[in-house]
Amino acid sequence: MSKSLNSALPSYTTVDNIIALIDTLKMKNGKEDEVKALFGKGNSAYSNSRSALRTFGFIEADNLNFTKEGQEAAYSQGEDKIGEMTKILKNCRPYEIFLLSLLKNGSASVTTIDDITNFWGKASYGSTQRNREDAAKLFMSIIDYCEFGKYVIGRGNNATRIEWSSDIIERIKNLNNDSNNVQEVSEEKTISSDANENLAEQEPEMLNEAHSAINEETVKGLDISKENLHTTNTPNITINVDMSEWSDDRMEAFFRYAHGKFKK
Questions:
Q1: What is the predicted pLDDT for the residue at 108?
Q2: What is d(CA 202, CA 189) in angstroms, rounded to the nearest whole number?
Q3: Nearest to residue 131, comparing CAs of 117, 143, 112?
Q4: Which of 44, 218, 228, 258 would suit a FRET pair with 87, their CA atoms being 20 to 30 Å apart?
Q5: Model confidence, pTM
Q6: What letter would DSSP give residue 9?
Q7: Could you tell me if residue 12 is left (phi over 0), alpha (psi between -120 and 50 degrees) or otherwise beta?
Q8: Most confident stretch, 97-106, 142-151, 233-242
Q9: Widest CA span in the chain
Q10: N-terminal to C-terminal alpha carbon distance within the chain
Q11: Radius of gyration in angstroms for the set of CA atoms belonging to the chain, rounded to a whole number
Q12: Which residues contact 132 (CB under 8 A, 6 or more apart)?
C-alpha cells in the first residue's frame, strides 16, 4: 500500500461501503458501469469508496483491478480479513501519524472527532475542515472494524468519539513493529544458519586435532610440557580409546598426560 495521499483525505464513505465494493469487485471487476450497478449504492457512494480503495492501495490507480494487497483483503475471511484491513492503519500516513501520537503520549482512553481533525489540521492533512471531519468519521469506523476501539456517534452534549480498547498502546506498538519483526526474524535465521554451517565445518577439524594430540601424547619418548598445551576455547569432546592391547606403562603415561601430570 502507498503511504502517500492527495490533499484530500479519504472521506464521504464508510468502512461498510469499502468492504461492499471490495466484495463487488470480486464478482465483477470489468466494466465500471456493471460494477456500479452491482454495488447499488449510488454514484457518490461508489466514487468515494473507489477513491478510498485507491488511496489505501487496494486497487490500481487507473483501473479496477486488485493490487496484491487488495487481493489479500478481498479473499480473506474472519480474523484474517480484519488483519488485512488493519494494515490500512499503518499504510495510510495520516492514520499512522495519529496513532503514533497516542503511542508517544503513552496512554489513551477516549479521542473525540475534534481531537482528530485538529491534529490533522496542524499536520496539514485534508483539503478543508469538512473533508477532515468526514475523513475522521471514516477513520473511526475503520478503527471500530479493526477492533482497536469503539466508534460512538455523539448525541446531545456527547461528542462523536472513539473509546479505545484497554490494550490500545500495545496494539499500536505491535502494528508499528510488524514489518520490523519480519526482517529481524529473517536476519536471525540467516545468522543461525551461518553459525551452524561454520560449526559443521569446524567439528571434523577439531576432532582430528584432538585425536592427533592423544596419539602424540601416547607415543613413547615424546617431550610434552605444560607450556605447549593450550586449553583456552577447547571443545568439550568425549573420545573413546581402545586400550585392550596397551601395555601398563603406556596406559599409565596416557592417564598422567590426560590429567596434566607430566612427571612421575
A1: 87
A2: 20
A3: 117
A4: 44
A5: 0.66
A6: P
A7: left
A8: 142-151
A9: 103
A10: 78
A11: 34
A12: 9, 116, 117, 120, 121, 125, 126
Q: pLDDT tens-digit profile of 71-80?
A: 999 999 999 9
Encode 23-73 in three state secondary structure: HHHHHCCCCHHHHHHHHCCCHHHHHHHHHHHHHCCCECCCCCCECHHHHHH
pLDDT the model gives residue 6: 45
Q: Which residue has the cell 471514516?
A: 138
> Left if phi > 0, otherwise alpha if psi is -120 to 50, otherwise beta: which for 45?
alpha
Q: How many angstroms from the chain centroid is the CA of residue 50?
A: 28
Instruction: Report the pLDDT value the prediction gives residue 239, as an integer from 0 to 100.
Output: 62
Cα–Cα distance for residue pair 8/68, rounded to 1 Å: 24
Using DSSP, state whether 204 is helix, strand or coil. Answer: helix
Q: Which pLDDT tens digit goes with each residue over 149-204?
A: 999 999 988 999 999 999 999 999 998 886 444 344 444 444 444 444 443 444 44
